[in-house]
Write a structure and sequence with these properties.
Layout lengths: L10 E3 L5 H9 L15 H11 E3 L5 H23 L5 H12 L4 E8 L2 E8 L5 H20 L4 E3 L8 E3 L12 H17 L1
Helix pairs in contact: 1-5, 2-3, 3-5, 4-5
Length: 196
Amino acid sequence: MENEITNHGPAWLRSDHDPAAFALAFVNTYDPMRTITDLLANPEYCRVFLSEWCEMDWDLDWGKIARRLQLFRDDLRSTLIRFMSGELALDDFTLYLDHKLMHWPWIARPVADGQSFRVAFVPSPHLKPVQHVEAVVTRALADLIAELGPDRLHRCESKPCEEIFADHSKSGRQRFCGKRCATRFNVAEFRKRKMN
């Protein structure tokens, strides 16, 4: 029986990648600032995006995978935006994540790193690749919010950017997803003041 259970299953996040970073990258596969606005709208772009983060069987129906992940991303993204804006209460957001997580079985795996010991929860190896991606993204977002607090997820204030990012600043007042957006916003504000 143990030989039938693989370490990772048909898909898994690469071990050198952070699940929270993958979850945020996944949520931000829609970005109006990019030349290609939606990385999940095209099967080839979806395959390339996932190949940067995951190991999986590449001989799959990428049209179906891209469409299913796009629907999942859109639902998760709209719920996150409602939560960050205060339109959705923390209790309701918790129920949303709980509902998503209960669909996928998780396996507890003990991990020893030198002097430390912890239990890691990994998705079942019997999940299909799309289910695995959905499970990892949902779990990573839940862990990220639990670690940083619900007030540390933000949406970039520099229009038209719509990136969702985790605020790791000391004050918790980060307004932009990165320096590019901060510069663009400040230059636009400067020009607006100069015209008046």
